[in-house]
Design goal:
Helices cover 37% and strands 13% of the residues. It is α+β, with helices and mostly antiparallel strands. Strands 1-2-4-3 form a four-stranded antiparallel sheet, with helices on both faces. The longest helix is centred in the middle third of the chain and has 19 residues. The chain starts with 7 loop residues before the first helix and ends in a 15-residue tail after the last helix.
Length: 211
């Protein structure tokens, strides 16, 4: 396959796709077509990984018991996080919607298999965290493919990862990268919700230093 330069129209659409890739917290409860979800999940196979180790491990959280345990985990961690703020910042935090776990029709827990022998340690001996970075890269491709289908993804990080690993009974050596809520967003915006809510502002300029 020869090198291919993409059209101006493609680049414009790709830029729009990245701008509309928001961290979604507000979902409609409509079901997600299984063929669409499978097509998006297939992007994991296209992701780069250190040493071709492909260390991602995806668990679909379906049962009432598993979802209840994950939601309890989030609520406990969220209460602890709130206690770390005070005054106006605490009041602001308490108003934020930080999880779509009660509404999202599809929920996934994605782990990194730190103990995988695939790849034979290439590129990970001096920087073993590269396996986890590889999983994050795969998630990014998955996220963009979901948005291209009109779906949204919410990354829940306010969790006790060790407790979630126990609740989902995953193998030793798997480390949680994220818990993901997936579904049809109630609305689409180029502006991050945390910016809209006044929690933090996005930097307008990329800081590049020279050494």
């Amino acid at each position: 396959m020869q090198d291919q330069a993409f059209s101006d129209d493609f680049r414009t659409q790709f830029d729009l796709l990245m701008r509309l890739r928001r961290d979604v917290r507000r979902f409609r409860t409509d079901p997600v077509d299984e063929a669409v979800l499978a097509r998006c999940l297939d992007t994991f196979r296209l992701a780069p990984s250190v040493g071709l180790s492909e260390p991602w491990r995806v668990i679909r959280v379906e049962s009432d018991a598993a979802r209840a345990a994950a939601l309890k985990n989030y609520r406990t961690a969220n209460a602890q996080a709130l206690s770390g703020y005070s005054g106006d910042r605490a009041r602001q935090y308490s108003r934020l919607k930080l999880s779509g776990m009660q509404d999202a029709p599809v929920q996934l827990a994605v782990f990194c298999d730190d103990a995988t022998g695939k790849g034979h340690g290439l590129g990970a001996r001096t920087m073993p965290e590269m396996r986890r970075y590889s999983v994050v890269t795969a998630i990014t491709l998955f996220w963009l493919s979901l948005r291209a289908e009109g779906l949204g993804l919410g990354w829940v990080s306010i969790l006790d990862p060790e407790q979630l690993a126990r609740d989902l009974d995953v193998p030793e050596g798997w480390r949680l990268i994220g818990y993901f809520c997936i579904g049809w967003p109630q609305e689409v915006s180029e502006t991050p919700e945390l910016e809209t809510e006044g929690w933090e502002m996005r930097d307008k300029n990329l800081l590049i230093e020279t050494r």
